[in-house]
Specification:
Length: 180
């Protein structure tokens, strides 16, 4: 990890848990907290400037993903922080903006999750899907499309994969940390 990865905003600098991996090409700015065993892969841009970003344990944010927040305002006094739970896999080139994700979620490559959206635990979001503002995705389902629609109940193998994907990335980031 390189010093240039982490930038303060208004005196607030990202906070990292134990055994975290952040690729040297990723940039984290401001009020960001990363849980233990989390991994941030190449070209991730995370800006916790006008609100906070919280990422849980064993979560992986893959290459080219953009993480941002919504500013506090008179009409939205708390704004929309970005909250990502434990054991979440965020695929390549996703955009998560001021939304809340629970635990054991897979966000497919290129998906967009917009302000105020809530994704409950144990959800699989298909590649290229768009989750509109303020939409809630209920636990235990596969969601696909633009805008996203509930496709079906998760198969047992898919539900098991949600946790396994997180484990796979914890193991991979450990290998990267061992090489540094």
């Amino acid at each position: 990890m390189h010093k240039n990865n982490f930038r303060s905003y208004r005196g607030i600098t990202p906070i990292l848990g134990n055994a975290v991996y952040v690729d040297e090409t990723a940039v984290l700015v401001g009020d960001i907290t990363l849980g233990d065993d989390t991994s941030i892969w190449p070209l991730v841009a995370a800006r916790g400037d006008v609100n906070k970003i919280t990422i849980g344990a064993r979560t992986n944010i893959q290459d080219g993903t953009v993480l941002h927040v919504t500013r506090k305002s008179a009409s939205n006094p708390d704004g929309n922080p970005l909250v990502i739970g434990d054991d979440v896999t965020v695929g390549h080139k996703c955009m998560l903006h001021g939304c809340a994700l629970g635990d054991r979620i897979l966000v497919g490559m290129g998906a967009i999750i917009m302000d105020g959206a809530i994704v409950e635990d144990d959800v699989f979001i298909g590649a290229g899907s768009l989750v509109p503002p303020n939409k809630t995705l209920k636990s235990g389902y596969l969601y696909v499309g633009n805008p996203v629609k509930q496709a079906r109940v998760l198969k047992e193998s898919e539900a098991n994969f949600l946790k396994q994907s997180a484990i796979n990335y914890v193991e991979l980031k450990a290998e990267y940390l061992a090489d540094t």
